[in-house]
């Protein structure tokens, strides 16, 4: 069953977009990545995923919090986020 949330694929994608677009610095960074014509959309999506999972919210791989956050971030539609920031 595919549940949509506020026009997004799911709550997780909407939530990341909502927070990222509310932060001026993060919004600018994601917009720059999304509109860089030298970066393919799939590569930009992977970069943005890594940015969130490795740089912004680094996990050490052990523990309940890490497992839960990883499972949530894995549900985000990173491709759709990149397309949204490219508009």
How does this structure look, described?
The protein has 87 residues and is mainly α. It has one domain. Helix content is 68%, strand content 0%. It has five helices and no strands. It has helices at 11-22, 24-35, 41-56, 64-73, 78-86. Helix 1 (11-22) packs parallel to helix 5 (78-86) and helix 3 packs across helix 5. The radius of gyration is 13 Å and the shape is globular. The model has no long low-confidence stretch (mean pLDDT 88).
Task: Please outline what is shown here.
This protein has 87 residues and is mostly helical. It has helices at 11-22, 24-35, 41-56, 64-73, 78-86.
Strand percentage, roughly?
under 5%
The percentage helix is: 55-70%
Report the major sheet.
none
Q: Quick one: overall form?
A: globular
| Elements, N to C (H/E) | HHHHH
What is the mean pLDDT?
A: 88
User: Helix/strand/pairing class, anyone?
Assistant: mainly alpha
Q: Provide the gyration radius in Å.
A: 13 Å
Helix count, DSSP H or I runs of 4 or more residues: 5
Total beta strands: 0
How many domain regions?
1
Distance between the termini: 28 Å
Low-confidence segments, given as residue ranges, are none
